[in-house]
Design brief:
The chain is α+β, with helices and mostly antiparallel strands. It is about 15% helix and about 25% strand.
Length: about 325
């Protein structure tokens, strides 16, 4: 009997097998970095996540994350009816119908002031008249008695020497451009402003985009600017029936040029009701009185607008006021 032979060397430390025999069963290697497979269409009521089994859930319920997974926050929460605020609607300060009504009311105020101011230029409207009275009651004289002879005394007071005021002459040539208002006074409308109404000695300009108005009124005589601006503001507000009027103090401005002797400004706020709609309005009037020897005239330029567009409208009005000043 021969001695047993030692087994042959095998590099895989496996028992020797014939080449044509099937390979032995081996366990699969672990796969790192991969998620467990999930069904493409999970069935509600018995959902399978990886190797975890969860119980029955009603249809439409939110699936629960696998055990050990971190919940994710920051997503959109549940939406309930009425939970979102309604979208902001564009603000429309003035309806078109109300804007037309306001325009008619403001123009009516200008017409009322222009047509009735002539009544205030008469002698019995604020101009005092002189009367004489000796303040002594004289008894009835006896017809047989002779009246006393008058006694004359000579005054020694010297007569005052009249002073001659030098006449101011035009040093700046007037520039007449734009629309003729009255008495060689012109206004140059800014872009976007057109003539809305006109009369013999006044006109109204309108901006359709902002719903604003500029009135130019000419008084063919020299009036103190600070006095005239109050009369114009009161007359326009009374004619347009603007209520709750609040007036700022009158400002004395520096004349725009050497042809103007006096200039003033008055701002105000109020409320205007038209067609059942009440709106807030702001206004500003500027008056300019020409030098007597150059152009004896007083001009008022008044602007009426909404508070939300006041700054841009006032800038346009300043440019038109400058054009009026150049024509005086």
């Amino acid at each position: 009997m021969s001695d047993p032979q030692p087994p042959g060397w095998n590099p895989q430390h496996r028992p020797s097998q014939p080449y044509d025999s099937p390979p032995p069963h081996t366990a699969p290697l672990p796969q790192y970095g991969r998620q467990p497979s999930q069904p493409a269409h999970p069935q509600y009521g018995n959902q399978q996540y990886g190797n975890q089994q969860y119980g029955n859930q009603p249809y439409g319920a939110q699936p629960q994350p696998p055990y050990g997974a971190q919940p994710q926050f920051g997503g959109p929460g549940p939406q309930y009816p009425g939970s979102q605020p309604p979208p902001n609607k564009p603000r429309r300060p003035w309806l078109p119908i109300a804007a037309v009504s306001v325009a008619l009311v403001l123009v009516a105020g200008v017409v009322a002031f222009v047509t009735t101011r002539g009544e205030h230029d008469t002698a019995d409207a604020g101009i005092p008249t002189a009367t004489y009275s000796d303040a002594v009651t004289t008894p009835s004289a006896d017809p047989t008695s002779e009246p006393p002879s008058p006694t004359y005394t000579q005054s020694t007071t010297p007569e005052p020497t009249p002073t001659v005021t030098p006449e101011r002459r035009r040093t700046l040539k007037d520039i007449d451009k734009g629309l003729l208002v009255y008495d060689d006074v012109y206004v140059q409308p800014v872009k976007g402003w057109t003539k809305f109404w006109g009369s013999k000695d006044g006109l109204v300009l309108r901006s359709v985009q902002t719903g604003s108005f500029v009135s130019v009124i000419v008084e063919p005589l020299g009036v103190p600017a600070a006095t005239y601006v109050v009369n114009v503001v009161d007359g326009l507000n009374k004619g347009a029936k603007i209520t709750a009027v609040r007036k700022a103090p009158v400002k004395t401005l520096r004349p725009a040029n050497s042809n103007i002797g006096d200039q003033a400004e008055l701002s105000y706020t109020g409320r205007l009701k038209s067609s059942g709609i009440t709106v807030s309005v702001v206004g500003r009037c500027t008056t300019m009185t020409g030098v007597d020897s150059i152009h004896n005239v007083t001009v008022a330029v008044c602007v009426t607008t909404r508070p939300d567009v006041k700054d841009s409208v006032y800038r346009d009005a300043d440019r038109m006021i400058a054009s009026v000043a150049r024509s005086i």
